[in-house]
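Subject: Sanity check before I submit

Could someone independently write out the structure tokens for this chain? I want to compare against mine line by line before I put it in a report. The sequence has 131 residues.
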Amino acid sequence: HLATSLPLPSERDHLRPRIDLIVFMIDIKSKYSLKNVETSLAHVDASFFLGKVCFLVTGVGRLNSCSVEMNAVCKLGETYCSPVLFCELELEGIRVSTAQRLLRMLQICAGHTPGVSALSFVSLMRSSDDN
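---
Independent answer below. Compare away.
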């Protein structure tokens, strides 16, 4: 399910499936994109930041046309203890591998991977990023 911003409209709450993972997409070419994500973050329950949120930054293949500073995006990941994935949607191989990473994260967050929780997965990603 896709939403352009949060909070989600309440009129269909009773039909909404459980939310296992929230992926905030940031287009590196749009300051509005980052501002929209920052505004939406206030509507996410704090418990989701324990392994069920990630930031997906698109357009990284065109850094010369950036409107968003990479430091601002990385700071979001640090502030909310959430992974940041970078991709270029126009390149099929990168788009496919990014989709596979997101699906794997979703499987873990939804509890479909025995022995791995969303929280332990994020801590593993963080320790590998720090090395």
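---
OP: Matches mine. For the report I'm noting this point. The first helix runs from residue 31 to 41.
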